Amino acid sequence: MEVLTVSIWFCVVTVYPWTVKTGKFLNVMWWWRIKPHPTKQNTFTYRPSKFWSKNARQFSYTGELDNLGRPHGLGKWEDSSPHGEFFLVICFVGVRVAFVDSRKESDWTSTKYVPENGRKLRWGVASVECSVSGVFFKNLPNATIIEGPDENKDDAWCIKQTRMIWNR
């Protein structure tokens, strides 16, 4: 049973993402049933689930393209699924490099540059230790809260605390 569990986990975490990313052994267009929209330009339909999805969703990109037809420059991405994305974005040869504006999920009538929940920011200082050498250490990454979080603090306080730590 453990072998089956580990095998399924390995397939879901490693094999499936690699297959989707590289397109080897799986035709992504077929799997998600992605098809060009019959009437709208740069719009596609897809099924979020292969076996039990009845409703098709749509996604589209409107904006600047490079010579190969990839997003390049300022553009708008829209997805009609309930948790789909809607944002203005800056792309470089097909890769998102910066968000200009995005729509908040809970209220589809407004747009926000950063997510917000109505509460004030809570500022704090933490120490994070990690290994970048490629060696695995079971105790890393390790995060330790040094000060905070506190709604009555601000960014200047945070920077001052960080400088005090460096000067110790």
Helices and strands in order, then pairings?
Elements: H1 2-22, H2 28-31, E1 35-36, E2 43-46, E3 57-65, E4 71-79, E5 86-92, E6 95-103, E7 111-112, E8 123-129, E9 142-150, H3 155-166
Antiparallel strand pairs: 1-2, 2-3, 3-4, 4-5, 5-6, 6-7, 8-9
How many strands appear in the DSSP assignment? 9
What percent strand? 25-35%
Q: How do the SSEs run, as a string of H and E?
A: HHEEEEEEEEEH
Domain module count:
3
Ends distance:
53 Å
The number of distinct helices, counting runs of at least 4 residues, comes to 3
| Poorly predicted ranges | none
Rounded Rg:
22 Å
What order do the strands of the largest sheet run in, or round the barrel if closed?
A: 1-2-3-4-5-6-7
Helicity, as a percent range: 10-25%
Reported for the largest beta sheet, the result is: 7 strands, antiparallel
* Class by alpha and beta content: alpha+beta
General form: extended
Sum up the structure in keywords:
alpha+beta; 3 helices; two-stranded antiparallel sheet
